[in-house]
């Protein structure tokens, strides 16, 4: 029965009265699922606020180490992707198949850009040693018997070099050198990066999951399985994507700006 | 058989049709088989733990083995038996029928929940063969994060996945209750079992995500050493307890609310009376669900939290007693001047009320900060939560099993077998756990492998009781097998129930109802 550009072949499941009934039920289910996502991140936010009040200086020194430029870039990318996702849903609802395909593809591309930026942020942190908990420490002990952090080791090396050589050999510019020095003076600073990696890491996994889901509905659009009569999966995935975006909108100021 | 009746059991054939079924009734049966297997395993661990405590010092195993058995007993029973038990088995089977629906809102998600429970259980269970876990079912830091082995990671990962199963089931039930009620079935006409399952589902959806993040943080702590729970890195191990009980205290009500729903059904049916105070029972379920989120601090009275927090949590904890008592008094008022039939399910219902009352009242002891300092981490606590969780949930589970057995299978469960099973379980239960109140008051600490010689007699009594309980459940199992093989044909409504599931054939047809029912009155219109 289905023709080229609409989904006339769609039938609602036997236990629903109508397609409308099924759509409303699915939508309620998706919203409930999103509530559980918010609550799960809620646990992290509670942990964050407790430790922020216990160790304000850790969070101050730690957030200085994050690149506001890259974080802001990612925020813009995600906000734009939310826009293209909303466009995609709208196009599917209006049966504009080709436009919908472009909008969804752009959304996936934005997710990819976000992850690439994250990749550079993460690798830089592995390079300077601003990593969580026990991995922030080297095996050796200092003369006074205290544990040496990787940042401390890097700074010790940097102190032997001139400013130009630091830039050249260790890829440390002057600002970052100062920030790391401030960080190293703060007790328990790896705790901040514990939160940074766990929160942004779990969020990153959600970005990947979202991109995968958008790809899944993109295939449905291409195969004409969704259209003006039936667009529940597209809208559901869209709502998930907006929540992923929303969580980042909270994570960005909390991690990058509060310092 | 002259003519084979067409029902959900013979609608499709073969093991594959079961493993891929989207029928809520078949999924309910699959949960039954799975959860009963876990129950058997958890029960064996319980018997072994009790056997070890028959004498002070070493009886059968080393302390190390004892710690592991205790951990597996707790984890299996809590996460794989009591939490999913009634909602997943009986909720799946009767909830859609009770509200006049053909299925749950999301049948494929329902099947996925079952597979998630299986996968989670397999990962958790694999630690039995890879690296045993000895943390206790609560996985308290810093022991779980710093001291003990890496087996904690798969164990916790399995529980995380089981949590997902729980969330998805809850989500499914909420949407089903909201959207799939038959015409005329207003929210104030749904059976009390559905109200209980609905309140439970809200708890599952709102509390379980917090457990999920707590367990993820524990995994992160173990693999990355993030330091959130590690004092050496600036973290706080007690934070884990706050997070953990923010889920696990509401989870206590995830365990008990469905049981209360079962009891409401049983009391109405076997007293042949309109349930007394329908709205009060219905909304007290929601009240329990609400209050349960605000009481987690009573698990940490001795953790060094502020006195103010202690007083506050003490007060709110006692508040839970109010909606609970509302239910209990309404059940008793329903029984008053009713035509009570003491069939096996009703015996289990009365057993529930008896044991749950003892569990609830001793809960008031523990909610009082002064008393709690004396009783904290003693056998008093062990006795208290077994009275609530086991005496409550498992009595209701047995009652539900015998009550709905004819509907599920079309065969009658032998009432005599049910009564004998009840005698063993009920008396065995009291013999096992009542001495533990006394032991706790005398100062025997919980979780310990060894105890002082003065505690020997009471411990032996307790171990003897555990054998009685084990026998009782074996008799219950025998009843299931016997009824399946030789049970009498049940007919549509052997017990005179008034809710919708008794208006359709037993076993129900594939789509539950030939014609969508239209409701004109409440669920319990006896007289």
From TrEMBL, chain A:
CDD domains: NorE_like. Residues 27-259 form the Heme-copper oxidase subunit III family profile domain. It is a multi-pass membrane protein. One of its GO terms (cellular component) is plasma membrane. The keyword Cell division does not apply. It comes from the Bacteria. The keyword Membrane applies. Keywords: Membrane, Transmembrane, Transmembrane helix. Pfam families: COX3 (PF00510). Coiled coil: none annotated. InterPro entries: Cyt_c/ubiquinol_Oxase_su3, Cyt_c_oxidase-like_su3, Cyt_c_oxidase_su3-like_sf, Cyt_c_oxidase_su3_a-hlx. The chain crosses the membrane at residues 30-54, 66-89, 101-120, 191-219, 239-258. GO terms for biological process: aerobic electron transport chain. It is found in: Cell membrane; Membrane. GO terms for molecular function: cytochrome-c oxidase activity. PANTHER family: CYTOCHROME C OXIDASE SUBUNIT III, NITRIC OXIDE REDUCTASE SUBUNIT E. This is Cytochrome c oxidase subunit 3 family protein. It comes from Leptospira selangorensis.
Automatic annotation (TrEMBL), chain B:
Its EC number is 7.1.1.9. Residues 10-520 form the Cytochrome oxidase subunit I profile domain. It is an enzyme of class 7 (translocase). It is a multi-pass membrane protein. The keyword Transmembrane helix applies. Pathway: Energy metabolism; oxidative phosphorylation. It catalyses: 4 Fe(II)-[cytochrome c] + O2 + 8 H(+)(in) = 4 Fe(III)-[cytochrome c] + 2 H2O + 4 H(+)(out). InterPro entries: Cyt_c_oxase-like_su1_dom, Cyt_c_oxase-like_su1_sf, Cyt_C_Oxase_1, Cyt_c_Oxase_su1_BS, Cyt_c_oxidase_su1_bac. Keywords: Cell membrane, Copper, Electron transport, Heme, Iron, Membrane, Metal-binding, Oxidoreductase, Respiratory chain, Translocase, Transmembrane, Transmembrane helix, Transport. It is found in: Cell membrane; Membrane. Pfam families: COX1 (PF00115). Its main location: membrane. Cytochrome c oxidase is the component of the respiratory chain that catalyzes the reduction of oxygen to water. Subunits 1-3 form the functional core of the enzyme complex. CO I is the catalytic subunit of the enzyme. Electrons originating in cytochrome c are transferred via the copper A center of subunit 2 and heme A of subunit 1 to the bimetallic center formed by heme A3 and copper B. This is Cytochrome c oxidase subunit 1. It comes from Leptospira selangorensis.
